[in-house]
Specification:
two-stranded antiparallel ribbon; flat; single chain
Length: about 70
């Protein structure tokens, strides 16, 4: 389930999926990823995600590789 919005890749109004900003393989190679907000800065191994791409564009990355 996603939210309605404009896909950042195809630029169409679609149902958006929660997308990773960086590929999973890159997170595994990073020694100390840092997460920060206006309130805190901390190290984390969790991937940064947001509603960014539609299902069709997410599928293009899944099949073609990140």
């Amino acid at each position: 389930m996603g939210v309605a919005g404009k896909c950042e890749l195809c630029l169409r109004q679609r149902d958006l999926r929660r997308s990773h900003f960086l590929p999973a393989g890159l997170y595994r190679r990073m020694l100390r990823p840092v997460f920060h907000t206006t309130e805190t800065v901390r190290q984390t191994s969790r991937q940064t995600r947001d509603y960014l791409l539609c299902g069709a564009c997410e599928e293009r990355f899944a099949k073609g590789g990140e």
